[in-house]
Amino acid sequence: MRNVLLTVGMSVVLLAANEASADLKKTVAVFDFANDSGLAGEPQIAKDFTVQLQDALIQSKKFNVLTRQDLDIVFAEQDLGDTGRMAQSAAAQKGKAIPAQILIKGRLTEFQEDTSGGGQGVGVAGFTIGTKKSTASVAVIIQLVDSTTGQIIESQRVEGEARAGGLSVGYSGKFDINSSNFKKTPLGKAVQMAIDRAVVYISERLDKMPWKGKVVTSKDGVVFINAGATDGVSKDDVFQVVREGESLIDPDTGMDLGSETTKLGSIKVFETQEKFSKAEMVDKSGVEILKGDLVLK
């Protein structure tokens, strides 16, 4: 059975797979956000926001989360392997490791606090305590990027807003949005609201995308896949195995239009380890399963 995939990136397998199990963890990589707000001169704000988003995604228990630093290490290892200074069997190969299904990046577009009424209050360690009314707002553009094609497949603006009246704590010093004091301010609460909404948005969008793994090897009737217990794979899970054909590249734009695939059959997991699983064929097309074939759910 052959299926023609008409879209690109992560979307290509939507025609060949059902919605992923909620227990399976997709691997995402979070890149440093840019600061395009009115405080663009404070780059640390966006970096701190990135750290909080990474932590929130980890705490959700739905994702394996990589940082830009993790990817830099992978690419550095590949570059070292290219120099020939490492044994070929131990060297990471360029183009062979794209550990994240989805890259997450974005821009902080709004980061402000408006106050009215009362005096300036009493200053304490960079914060003011007074009777001002305060409204804080934070907005960020979240982009989901296909790790293979680099195409932006989803983009969404998420916002956070918080108000305080009467005796309130406001910000007046150097920004550190990871500090416990800052988190008590209206601006800190607005940041947390934006983070929470970003996690909900990312979770909802990725839930609609298929989970994807790969065949490590196949021998003596056993298929080894590159996902295990830490990825949410369980005994008796059933996956489809497909083989991608040649990419169809638009001759005018150079855009990847997708590829034709061959369904090789289904496999059922009978043993899981931390980082890999063993499975057996439950139906097959007669075509041998090979290293690198896609495993879909």
Can you offer a commentary on this structure?
The chain is of the alpha+beta class. It folds into two domains: 2-7 and 211-296, Thrombin, subunit H, CATH 2.40.10; 25-116 and 136-159 and 172-207, ABC-type transport auxiliary lipoprotein component (Rossmann fold, 3-Layer(aba) Sandwich). 20% of the residues lie in helices and 40% in strands. The chain is built from four helices and 16 strands. A six-stranded antiparallel barrel has the order 11-12-15-14-13-16. Strands 2, 3, 4, 5, 8 and 9 form a six-stranded mixed sheet that branches. A three-stranded antiparallel sheet has the order 6-7-10, with no helix packed on it. β13 and β14 form a beta hairpin.
CATH superfamily of the largest domain: ABC-type transport auxiliary lipoprotein component
What is the CATH class of the largest domain?
Answer: Alpha Beta
Q: State the helicity in percent bands.
A: 10-25%
CATH topology of the largest domain: Rossmann fold
Morphology: elongated
Sheet with the most strands? 6 strands, antiparallel, barrel
> How many β-strand stretches?
16
Question: Low-confidence segments, ≥5 residues, pLDDT <50?
Answer: 1-20, 85-98, 118-129, 166-173
Number of separate domains? 2
Residues in β-strands, percent: 35-45%
Q: Strand order across the biggest sheet? A: 11-12-15-14-13-16
- Total number of helical segments? 4
SSE run:
EEEHEHEEEEEEHHEEEEEE
The secondary structure category is alpha+beta
Radius of gyration: 24 Å
What is the first-to-last residue Cα distance?
17 Å
Average pLDDT taken over every residue? 77
Name the CATH architecture of the largest domain.
Answer: 3-Layer(aba) Sandwich
